[in-house]
User: Fold this.
Amino acid sequence: MAKAQLLPAYLIVGEDTLKAEEALRRLTDRVAQEGDLDFNREVFDGAQGAEGQAIVEAANTLPFLSDLRLVVVKNAEKLPKESSELLVSYLADPNPTTVMALVAGKLAKNTRLYKAAAKVGPRSVIDCTPKKGKK
Assistant:
C-alpha cells in the first residue's frame, strides 16, 4: 500500500497531551522519511511570543538538500490575533515544500485558524481530545 501524500499543514488539537505528542512524533517521522530534518525543521511556541511573520517566513523558505521542511507551531492557540491572521492567510495558499504542524490544546472549531487548517485537506485536523469516561 502506498503512503498517503503529506498535506502542507496539519492541526493537532486536543488536551490529551500524550496523544498530541504521539501525533507530532509520527508526523515528524513521516516528514523525516522524505528528507533530512537537521536543516529543515523549525519550532515556534505561541506561549513564548512566536510571531506570525517569522513563522510564515520559515514556512515559505525552500528546503535545504531535502524535499520537505517541517515547521512546528506549539501552543498555536496562544498566538496573538495578528500572528494568527497571518497564518490564516498563509494556509489559504501554503508552500507545497513545507509541512506545517499547528499544535493547540484548545482551539474552538469556529475560529478562523481552525477553519483555515481544516480547509487544507481531508485529515488535516488531528483530534486529540481525551475520551469521555463512562458514568
Observations:
- The two ends are 40 Å apart (CA to CA).
- The chain has a mean pLDDT of 92.
